[in-house]
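can u do me a favor
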């Protein structure tokens, strides 16, 4: 694996650390390629949770604009999205296990929206989320125009996108943009404890829960009730459901395996 991404394999879960601290972990093609490979491995059955974080003093500054230097003519940024960012966001949302993001400083542009694409976001109290696109004449990408209105409401989403003002971690928590703001010194220990916990939980049920929320954005109530019916049918056939019921009746802690059958 490339050194632009650090991969640490724990028992049942994988820790992925963006590792370009000298560039605030801004994305270049090498980092995109390394992260795509790591997420492909994370999709294997043996892994039951993923933790994404950044090295150094920030989570991710988005696209490395230095990659644009010296290019002749206007770039095709749509092609960049189609090749790299859109597949990354889809991988994070469709990964059939929980993805935790630990934001340790600035998360700007696509970096902010990649964080928001994860399932549970913890942020250090010193962290900031910035929709910096307007400052260079661009529109929110990496799912920003999708996630922000659903997380914070359209009025706040428009203000953040049009003004590019930073949102501190505690404000992001109050607005429902993220799960929790934590003390800087406790961020990684809390994030790792959460990943380790989720790696012991009923993985198939969590995957189906992700599928339910993914489907809900475009569904009517009747359509979503049908989705819930179908997903619950699948969940009820998993070994972890049987184990959960057995453990509940026996008044003991469940021992989930995460296996589909």
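np, heres the sequence
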């Amino acid at each position: 694996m490339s050194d632009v991404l650090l991969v640490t394999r724990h028992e049942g879960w994988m820790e992925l650390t963006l590792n370009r601290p000298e560039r605030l972990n801004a994305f270049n093609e090498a980092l995109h390629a390394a992260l795509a490979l790591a997420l492909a491995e994370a999709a294997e059955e043996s892994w039951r949770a993923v933790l994404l974080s950044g090295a150094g003093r920030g989570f991710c500054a988005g696209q490395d604009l230095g990659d644009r230097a010296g290019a002749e003519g206007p770039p095709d940024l749509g092609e960049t999205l189609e090749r790299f960012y859109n597949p990354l966001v889809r991988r994070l949302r469709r990964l059939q296990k929980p993805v935790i993001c630990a934001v340790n400083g600035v998360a700007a542009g696509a970096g902010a929206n990649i964080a928001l694409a994860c399932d549970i976001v913890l942020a250090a109290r010193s962290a900031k989320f910035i929709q910096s696109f307007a400052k260079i004449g661009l529109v929110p990408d990496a799912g920003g125009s999708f996630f922000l209105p659903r997380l914070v409401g359209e009025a706040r989403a428009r203000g953040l996108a049009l003004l590019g003002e930073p949102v501190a971690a505690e404000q992001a928590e109050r607005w429902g943009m993220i799960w929790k703001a934590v003390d800087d010194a406790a961020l990684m220990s809390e994030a790792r404890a959460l990943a380790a916990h989720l790696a012991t939980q009923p993985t198939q049920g969590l995957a189906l829960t992700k599928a339910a929320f993914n489907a809900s954005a475009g569904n009517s109530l009747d359509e979503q009730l049908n989705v819930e019916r179908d997903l619950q049918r699948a969940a009820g056939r998993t070994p972890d459901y049987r184990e959960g019921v057995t453990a509940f009746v026996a008044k003991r802690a469940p021992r989930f395996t995460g296996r589909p059958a």
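The mean pLDDT is 95. hope that helps!!
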